[in-house]
Amino acid sequence: MANHDSALRMRLTMRDLCTALTSGDKTALDTTYRETVSALDRSVRKGILHKKTASRCKSRLSARVKAATASHDGEPKVSGSFFERLKSLGYTRACYACGACSTGDGCDRV
Q1: Where in the chain is the domain with CATH 1.20.58?
Q2: What is the C-alpha separation between 32 and 5, in angstroms, rounded?
Q3: What is the mean pLDDT of residues 15-28?
Q4: Under a CB-based contact definition with an 8 Å cutoff, are residues 32 and 20 in contact?
Q5: pLDDT tops 90 at residue 55
Q6: What confidence score (pLDDT) does residue 75 get?
Q7: Against a cut of 0.85, is the pTM above it?
Q8: Are the CB atoms for 29 and 65 separated by under 8 Å?
Q9: Is 8 a residue whose pLDDT tops 80?
Q10: 8 Å CB contact between 86 and 96
Q11: pLDDT above 90 (res 92)
Q12: Taking Cα atoms as reference points, which of 78, 83, 49 lies closest to residue 66?
């Protein structure tokens, strides 16, 4: 029964984190993120989750929280197509779609 309670706590905190992400309240988001990471770590200690599964989940949640706190007026800093996001990250030497063209705008080969 203890494992059931821990798994339930983990699911509920992840649900609360999703709610906090949509609400936009940064303080609630920060505290909920900490609670979620704690619940994930506790699930690993109890053997409910594998440690790499929890690590992957924490990484993805961290990226979402970082994007939500870095956004301005609810919109992410980097928006647009996949190619625009790659350009913003500094990929400009080859075509992002096939890797062969030097246009940097994508190509019709894909």
Answers
A1: 2-70
A2: 18
A3: 85
A4: yes
A5: yes
A6: 47
A7: no
A8: yes
A9: yes
A10: yes
A11: no
A12: 78
Q: Please state, in angstroms and rounded to a whole number, the distance separating the CA atoms of residues 91 and 24.
A: 31
pLDDT at position 81 is 62
Quickly state the pLDDT bin for 96 (edges 50, 70, 90).
very low
Interatomic CA distance for residues 76 and 67, integer angstroms: 6
Helix axes 2-23, 26-45, angle to 10 degrees: 160
What is the model's pLDDT at position 109? 44
Find how far residue 27's CA is from the centre of its chain. Answer: 18
In angstroms, the Cα distances linking 61 to 1, 11, 64, 87 are 27, 13, 5, 24
**DSSP category for residue 75:** B
Which CATH architecture does the domain made up of 2-70 adopt?
Up-down Bundle (1.20)
Nearest to 57 by CA among 49, 66, 48: 49
- Cα distances from 41 to residues 17, 19, 25, 44, 53, in angstroms, run 16, 21, 24, 5, 11
Q: H helices within 24-104, ranges in order?
A: 26-45, 51-70, 82-88
Grouping H, G, I as helix, E, B as strand and the rest as coil, residue 20 is helix
